[in-house]
Specification:
With 443 residues, the chain is an alpha+beta fold. It has helices at 6-13, 31-37, 61-73, 126-136, 152-157, 165-168, 190-200, 256-266, 282-289, 330-333, 362-365, 395-407, 410-421, 436-442; strands at 23-25, 54-56, 77-81, 98-102, 109-112, 117-121, 140-141, 175-181, 187-189, 211-218, 220-221, 226-234, 245-252, 277-280, 315-319, 325-326, 349-353. The structure holds flavin-adenine dinucleotide (FAD) and 2-acetamido-2-deoxy-beta-D-glucopyranose (4 copies). The site of one 2-acetamido-2-deoxy-beta-D-glucopyranose has 4 residues, from strand 1. One of its GO terms (biological process) is cannabinoid biosynthetic process.
């Protein structure tokens, strides 16, 4: 379908006109504001960035189903957007004509303290999840990312890590059920999708397999008082011999006295003092980590707009000597194949480069990072991976290049699952898991 005929074809396919009101055509007055509402990288907020021919904003799960069935019938490219934080904008940008399935209205959070679990819909933000958990109980939490505006949908399906990773692992290490639509428009849960597909959408990315509606997560316990600190060391203070300044930020699930005595023993070089420490609630620590004054009203976590939006490019690596996010703890105990996320034991750190286009840290860091394969974190999407060493025609060969960096040996299992559940590659994007049988048909 062309960009001109696609919207009409699509709308006419719909089973009920009531759903039409959830469709925004490029001519609708709110089209631009809805599109821009979840653009989190200004590189993709330009007048030349290709726009979707439609934005679908389902507020009922069956609107999602209608969109999938009609899109599949007319082979329209679907981009699924939850919180819009994809570093490369893959949830709302494409080089082919496409439409956005925008999940922001599907954001209910249901917490059950009896079973210490919660169902969280894909369009919820992490800040909303944290706030709602705290509202029910001050001694429960969920291990996920630091930035409160990140969407549950993209975050969890890609793994999800945060500052409790060493204690409780990744977000996906605490997911117990899920609801998702497959390419045939069937609403599946863990039981009906089976363990393979459930495994895939807990770290292998959702956009290759279907539309995730919600995850059921296990809450974790935290003490009433936790401790945070942010300690800066300069070069003169021996922070490191390659940068000018290093900042150590921490969350400790305990009081400051215990933390200071622990670090005097385990990390004396830091020279941590009681006065560096701030005792607060777990929700207060969420504010601290995202650079919000911890005395601010916690309702700021319900704000779906970030404090600032920038032009950004991010990269990631895994290594054995430099420090950014510390691994170890629970992360080292979980087998590499437990979820698609393979960077666990043997990684001391994840490095994230917050660099811009002109100053890639890649080659500079090469001697110090993982090799064969060089690793990268799927949630830190990087379209540079996979550009080299591939013949553009063969999507499987191209997919292997980035796929092995993100998933190491788990890539093969993801390809098998993809081939089984979406053989015609309906759910796809620039870095989705390839479906080799479909590729064969094309050749
Ligand atoms: C400011 C900032 C801070 C970050 N902090 C962290 C952090 O602390 N920890 C961490 O692990 N990561 C972090 N990230 C990375 C973040 O986890 C990923 O970008 C994540 O994919 C964002 O999810 P989203 O729903 O907001 O993004 P989106 O852009 O909406 O989606 C990301 C990808 O997931 C797909 N997707 C989204 N929703 C669904 C769905 N319902 N079903 C199927 N597929 C779906 C999209 O199509 C896209 O491919 C951060 C990113 C930013 C920009
Ligand atoms: C978008 O515009 C169409 C055509 O003008 C209209 O029928 C539809 O109701 C509008 N949708 C929304 C959500 O406003
Ligand atoms: C995106 O671009 C539009 C149009 O130029 C502008 O109005 C809007 O403020 C921009 N978004 C952000 C977050 O800067
Ligand atoms: C920095 O390291 C040097 C050499 O190892 C040592 O002599 C010096 O005391 C250290 N400085 C601080 C502030 O720890
Ligand atoms: C946090 O807010 C309090 C109360 O408004 C203020 O006194 C304090 O200086 C603020 N702290 C920081 C670090 O801005």
């Amino acid at each position: 379908s062309t960009a001109n005929s696609a919207p009409n074809t699509f709308v006419h396919c719909l089973p009920s006109h009531r759903i039409i009101h959830q469709f925004l055509h490029q001519t609708n007055t709110s089209f631009s504001s809805v599109l821009q509402a979840y653009i989190r990288n200004l590189r993709f907020n330009t007048s030349t960035t290709r726009k979707p021919f439609l934005i679908v904003t389902p507020f009922h799960v069956y609107h999602v189903q209608a969109a999938i069935v009609c899109a599949k019938k007319h082979n329209l490219l679907t981009k699924i957007r939850s919180g819009g934080h994809d570093y490369e904008g893959l949830s709302y940008v494409a080089s082919q004509p496409f439409f956005i399935l925008d999940m922001f209205k599907l954001r209910s959070i249901e917490i059950d303290m009896e079973t210490e679990t919660a169902w969280v819909e894909a369009g919820a933000t992490l800040g909303e999840v944290y706030y709602r958990i705290d509202e029910k109980c001050k001694t429960h939490a969920f291990p996920a990312g630091v930035c409160p505006t990140v969407g549950v949908g993209g975050h969890i399906c890609g793994g999800g890590y945060g500052n409790m990773m060493r204690k409780y692992g990744l977000s996906v290490d605490n997911v117990i059920d899920a609801q998702m639509f497959d390419e045939q428009g069937r609403l599946l849960d863990r039981k009906s999708m089976g363990e393979d597909l459930f495994w895939a959408i807990n770290g292998g990315g959702g956009a290759s397999f279907g539309v995730v509606i919600a995850y059921k997560v296990k809450l974790v316990r935290v003490p009433e008082t936790v401790t945070v600190f942010r300690v800066r060391k300069t070069l003169e203070q021996n922070a490191t011999d390659i940068t000018i300044r290093a900042t150590f930020v921490a969350l400790f699930l305990g009081d400051s006295k215990s933390l200071v005595s622990l670090l005097i023993d385990k990390f004396p070089q830091l020279g941590l003092k009681q006065s560096d420490c701030i005792e607060t609630s777990w929700l207060g620590s969420v504010l601290f980590w995202t650079n919000i004054n911890i005395t601010a009203p916690v309702e700021v976590l319900l704000n779906r707009q970030p404090q600032s939006v920038n032009y950004l490019k991010r990269k990631s690596d895994y290594d054995i000597q430099f420090q950014f996010n510390s691994y170890g703890g629970r992360m080292a105990k979980i087998p590499l194949t437990e979820t698609p996320f393979p960077h666990r034991a043997a990684n001391l750190w994840k490095i994230q480069y917050l660099a811009n286009w002109n100053k890639p840290g890649k080659e500079y860091m090469t001697p110090f990072v993982s090799k064969n394969p060089r690793g990268a974190f799927f949630n830190y999407r990087d379209l540079d991976l996979g550009i080299k060493n591939c013949n553009g025609k063969n999507s499987y060969a191209k997919g292997r290049v980035y796929g092995v960096k993100y998933f190491k040996d788990n890539f093969n299992r993801l390809v098998q699952i993809k081939t089984k559940v979406d053989p015609h590659n309906f759910f796809r994007n620039e870095q989705s898991i390839p479906a080799p049988t479909y590729q064969k048909l094309l050749e």
